[in-house]
């Protein structure tokens, strides 16, 4: 079946550090892949997406590349800020339109 | 701007009570969704609706029902709340079509005692 696995958190970084949050997936066919972010006390917001192999999604300095050969969609940012502290969810979309989410990774950035 | 609102941010109920969680979107979206969010499990789909009066079970529908009498409003109902339904509940909506982005509300944190 379809599933998404994220690295366990929490991830704690100092401001301006490099961020990687790993995400791998299992799916039949060619799903679209997403990263959502949940800031404290808020709902989820779409951060970026990629719809086919080798696509790179990017937004607010975050990037992720759809790697079909490794079934991965790792999230990266070159220099994190305190305001990036949040929970990050990787997700895939089945061809029915339903999303399957990973378990979420909490990022804490310290000044 | 896209807006999905949920009736309560925090709710405390007793075991056996009937609980209604309300979600309203102002974007004229056809699709609406209810998820629950639990630590270590991410979000799991409970029910979704692709049109007024239409509904379809998600991955964990047991113990829940839904109602969609108007396009903008999607209600999640716990017929007889149990402690294992203590969770964060998130509503989302999207335009018609499976490729559309889902927009989420702020969530309702429900505690069942």
Task: Walk me through what this model shows.
- The complex is a heterodimer of chains A (111) and B (113).
- Chain A is mainly β and 111 residues long.
- Helices cover 0% and strands 51% of the residues of chain A.
- In chain A, strands 2, 5, 6, 10, 11 and 12 form a six-stranded mixed β-sheet that branches.
- In chain A, strand 5 (32-38) and strand 6 form a beta hairpin.
- Chain A is globular and about 40 Å long.
- Chain B is globular and about 40 Å long.
- Chain B starts with a strand and ends with a strand.
- In chain B, strand 7 and strand 8 form a beta hairpin.
- The model of chain B has no long low-confidence stretch (mean pLDDT 93).
- Chain B is built from no helices and eleven strands.
- By secondary structure, chain B is mostly beta strands.
- Chain A binds chain B through residues 4, 6, 32, 36, 41-46, 49, 51, 89, 91, 93, 95-99, 101-104, and chain B through 4, 31, 37, 40-45, 48, 58, 90, 92, 94, 97-107.
How would you sum up this structure in a few lines?
Chain A has 111 residues and is mostly beta strands. Helices cover 0% and strands 51% of the residues of chain A.
Q: What topology does this entry show?
A:
The complex is a heterodimer of chains A (111) and B (113).
Chain A: E1 3-6, E2 11-14, E3 19-21, E4 23-26, E5 32-38, E6 44-50, E7 56-59, E8 62-65, E9 75-77, E10 86-93, E11 99-101, E12 105-110
Parallel strand pairs in A: 2-12
Antiparallel strand pairs in A: 1-4, 3-9, 5-6, 5-10, 7-8, 8-9, 10-11, 10-12
Chain B: E1 4-6, E2 10-13, E3 19-25, E4 31-38, E5 42-51, E6 54-57, E7 65-70, E8 73-78, E9 87-94, E10 103-104, E11 108-112
């Amino acid at each position: 079946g379809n599933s998404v696995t994220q690295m366990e958190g929490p991830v704690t970084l100092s401001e301006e550090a490099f961020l990687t949050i790993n995400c791998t997936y299992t799916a039949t066919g060619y799903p679209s892949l997403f990263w959502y972010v949940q800031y404290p006390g808020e709902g989820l917001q779409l951060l970026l997406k990629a719809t086919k192999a080798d696509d790179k999604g990017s937004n607010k300095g975050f990037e992720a590349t759809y790697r079909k050969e490794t079934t991965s969609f790792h999230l990266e940012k070159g220099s994190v800020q305190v305001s990036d502290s949040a929970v990050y969810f990787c997700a895939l979309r089945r061809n029915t339109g339903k999303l399957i989410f990973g378990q979420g990774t909490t990022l804490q950035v310290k000044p | 701007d896209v807006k999905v609102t949920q009736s309560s941010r925090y709710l405390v109920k007793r075991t056996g009570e009937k609980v209604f969680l309300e979600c309203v979107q102002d974007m004229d979206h056809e699709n609406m969704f209810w998820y629950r969010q639990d630590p270590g499990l991410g979000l799991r789909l409970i029910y979704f609706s692709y049109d007024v009066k239409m509904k379809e079970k998600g991955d964990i529908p047991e113990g829940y029902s839904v109602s969609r009498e108007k396009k903008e409003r999607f209600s999640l109902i716990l017929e007889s709340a149990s402690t294992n339904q203590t969770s964060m509940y998130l509503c989302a909506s999207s335009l018609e079509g499976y490729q559309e982005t889902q927009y989420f509300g702020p969530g309702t944190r429900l505690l069942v005692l």
